[in-house]
Design goal:
Number of helices: 10
Largest sheet: 4 strands, mixed
Strand order of the largest sheet: 2-1-3-4
Radius of gyration: 17 Å
Order of helices and strands: EHEHEEHHHHHHHH
Strand content: 5-15%
Structural class: alpha+beta
Length: 212
């Protein structure tokens, strides 16, 4: 069984758990106590030298970085659960295009907004609202492009859901739940919100949304 070392509510731990659920891969969550700084202890950094979560132990094979873990699990179990990375060359190229869109036109802006609005207060630090406003201003035209893409197809890489779509869920849910003004960013774009409601109501996500 895959051992997932992480913290139940963190974005990247839930992302890996989501992929396990989509692929019907059993996993055991090994709780890393972030409050006590376990991820920075020598025993942890000997395995994950950056002192970050999550990582997996798959029968002795150690892997960290959630995107790498997701791709590994999908490719190891290609016939199980949902096929999330296409193998046909053109379809795979469109998937890679969508994956780049997610990384550089969505998460690059949403992740630091979540860091300011959620993580900073958790650690007793005030959010930098000026930075949040700047990031949001940069994000809005990116989401206009999303709305255009999704007016022509069901998902970012075509008419089948892929890893590129699911990679939006952890940070996107935190963003959407920041309040009405943030939810409106999605809700005001009809094709974007149709897609968002689709992926955010997938059973696999609902199973891990509140904790891996």
């Amino acid at each position: 069984m895959v051992k997932l070392y992480g913290f139940p509510s963190t974005t990247c731990t839930r992302f890996v758990a989501l992929i396990c659920k989509e692929k019907n891969i059993p996993y055991e969550l090994i709780h890393v106590n972030l409050a006590k700084g376990e991820q920075k202890q020598p025993a942890f950094t000997a395995i994950q030298p950056f002192g970050q979560i999550p990582y997996i132990d798959d029968e002795g094979f150690i892997l960290y970085e959630s995107r790498a873990i997701a791709r590994y699990l999908i490719k190891k179990y290609p016939s199980d659960g949902t096929p999330l990375i296409p193998s046909e060359p053109k379809a795979e190229a469109l998937f890679e295009q969508a994956a780049s869109i997610e990384a550089f036109n969505f998460t690059a802006f949403v992740a630091p907004i979540i860091a300011e609005k959620v993580f900073n207060p958790y650690f007793g630090l005030p959010p930098n609202e000026e930075r949040v406003s700047e990031l949001l201003a940069s994000l809005l035209p990116k989401l206009d492009a999303y709305d255009l893409i999704l007016s022509k197809q069901k998902y970012l890489a075509g008419d089948s859901v892929t890893l590129a779509d699911l990679a939006h869920l952890a940070y996107g849910t935190s963003f959407y739940e920041l309040g009405a003004d943030f939810a409106e960013v999605f809700d005001s774009r009809p094709n974007l919100v149709r897609w968002w409601k689709d992926i955010s109501n997938r059973p696999a996500w609902l199973a891990v949304k509140d904790g891996a």
